[in-house]
Protein 1
Amino acid sequence: MQKNYQNHENLHANCLIIGNQGILVCGPSGSGKTSLMLHLIDRATETSQFAAMVADDQTLLHNANGRLIGECPIDISGLCEIRGFGIYKNSFVASTVINLVVEIISPEKLARMPLENSRNIKGISLPEISVPQFQLEQSFRIITASMSKLCT
């Protein structure tokens, strides 16, 4: 049976879940979205947290009763591209509710004390943070702190 994606927006982004929080990772091609996603999953599982990929490079988004749902196009489910290796089959979950948007930016553009920001996707306002490109550990710390702030 073919899935109907009529009300979905296909965004050039990665999507993952850590614990019960869905994260949408945005940035230009080659900015390190997949590397960051895999790093976040590895770091979370090191501390016995549930973490899984939802989508690599293309995330289908739709509004489900005021909640933004991210899922992967069926044709590329469980696949991610690792630059320098090629296509890699990875464990994944079919979908998640998105709670946080992460934008990868050049390190020199990262504010030392950023203001709170949000992004509206499909009529839903979500908290948005920026992380420095190719600085995986610093990005992990920023995302972890932001996720804990969402829970308070």
Note: The first strand starts at residue 9 and ends at 11.
Protein 2
Amino acid sequence: MKTIFTICLALMPLSLTLAQDKEAKKPAAELLELIRFKQIMKDTSNASFAPFLDKLRKQGFPEAGVKEVAEAAGVYFDQVASDPDLKSAMMALYEKEFTLEELKGLVAFYRTPLGQKALSKLPALTQSGAKLGEKFAIKHQAGFKEQMTRIMQKYKPAAKPGGGE
């Protein structure tokens, strides 16, 4: 009896540490579920891959082939998004950037109607914001291009005598 008590007493700190680790990971895992990380990952991958499929079509690739490529890509994106090691790595990333209390706060927020609305609107806002960013980058690119040309010319290596490079 004394031996069992001693073993239990010795293992108590380990048990508490494991419980704390599990507690710390729970909000990060719950957050990934609430933000629909797996689905967002697949949707983003598919959206990023769409221009390649369009390019295949424009090059005359048969539609059956485009469909087959899209299906293969979908399976691949699902494998990546479903990888438990990716989920663990993402949880670790969130745990590195946020305290346990902050993670709990994010979970609480995303459970609210406003949090759910934010989750539903953020992908479209991000996409629209990227388009706006591109539009305004184009608006200002001429001045930037001129500035870059001046800088590159300023630091361009001098040509070696005799036409060598």
Note: Residues 113-154 form the longest helix (42 residues).
Protein 3
Amino acid sequence: MRNAITVEAGADVRRQQYRDIQQGLASMLEDEPDWVAAMTSVVCELHHGFDYYDWTGFYRHVEPEALAVGPYQGTHGCLRIDFDRGICGACARTGEIQLVDDVHSRPDHIACSASTQSELVVPVTTRQGKLMAVLDVDSDRPAAFSRADASGLEALCDWLGETYGSSGSSLDVD
């Protein structure tokens, strides 16, 4: 396992860490068809690759307008999140990355953990644009995440959607 980078790391260091993690995951998961095993491996690699990740996990699209907790590392997560609630719900509803420097500034924030200060949520979609899950990373530090984190996670989530899109969605909604 690679060394965890700190919140002080610059954009170039962060980008390289995401590239290295994605390359390692592509090799590790090359013959792995199971979406849950893939999510579990992604969470482990990310959580241990960045020391400012306090909670790292997936919320799976399981009902027409709802997410359910998937593989994660950290303290307990919320079990279910409706699309009209919280930062994860906003990501699922809009399909847009949610990069939040101060979760307390968002009236829709759901406090699954009192220690969370900043959050980054990225959608995982199939090639056809169907939502499979959202990847949620929280930090106990304010403004921990940067555009480099967002683009690194976006590339990883795009790869997951392309790789597991035909088997990953537990919900077939149009």
Note: The longest helix spans residues 11-28.
